[in-house]
Structures are given as C-alpha cells and as structure tokens.
Specification:
mainly alpha, Multidrug-efflux Transporter Regulator, Chain: A, Domain 2, 137 residues
C-alpha cells in the first residue's frame, strides 16, 4: 500500500478539490509535510482527511470535526473525551433521524399531491381529447 500521497492523489481519491485540501490545512486540520512548494501527505493525514469528510457527510460542524480529530490524535483512552465524543455522536444521530422523518413526511405529502394532480390531468384529458392533440402539436 502507498505510504505517501500528493495533494493531487488525495483530491482524486476522495473526490475533492485541491482548494478543499488547502482549506483544511489552513484550518489546522491537515498537516502535510512540505518540500518547497510540494505537499506530501502520509497515511496519518489520509486518515484524518477520511475522518473530516465522514464528519461533513453526517453533518458535523468544522469545530466538531476538529474536536473529533483531537480525540483521534490522543488515543490515550481518556474517559471524559470518549464520553464527550459518544454524546456528540448520539446527538448527531438523533438530529439525522429527525431530518429523515421530515424528509419521509415531505415525500409522502408530495406523492399524495402527485396522485391527485395526475387524476385531475387524466380527467381533463378525457373531457377534452382535442386539447391533448393541440398541445402535442
């Protein structure tokens, strides 16, 4: 397995822009090794990027992600930090479930409305068959 990655390697692998990677570096979330103008990322930085993108995907703020990265760095088993991380994850899961419920409800309402509108359209087309032919022309 590859152990060193260029900024382009990571951008391509994770489907992000070079600007995105530089942004995370500016925010202190990634720390590539510099050689002149080149950036070299190791396995550690690749893992950090993976965690950042996971955090974003599940809706965590940059501050929350930074906090999770600091926990990742410590790996010392600090009970307080682990409890805090678990609490934050539980809160995010609850929030996502609420969002899912809202989306499911919106889909149900739109589906019912589509059914009503479709029925109205079919009724109108049956009443006015010449209107359908004129609209097609």
């Amino acid at each position: 397995m590859q152990t060193t990655f260029t900024i382009g390697d990571l951008a391509e692998e994770f489907g992000v822009t070079l600007r995105t990677l530089r942004f995370y570096e500016d925010k202190g979330m990634l720390h590539p090794r510099r050689e002149g103008l080149s950036r070299h990322y190791g396995k550690r930085e690749r893992s950090r990027l993976k965690l950042i993108l996971l955090g974003k995907r599940v809706g965590l703020s940059l501050n929350d992600i930074k906090e999770m990265l600091s926990l990742y760095e410590l790996r010392d088993g600090n009970v307080f930090q682990l409890r805090h991380a678990l609490k934050r994850f539980e809160e995010q899961v609850a929030l996502l479930k609420c969002h899912r419920s809202d989306v499911d409800q919106a889909i149900d309402e739109l589906s019912r409305t589509m059914s009503i509108v479709s029925g109205m359209l079919h009724a109108r087309e049956a009443e006015e068959p010449h209107a359908v032919l004129e609209a097609a022309e």
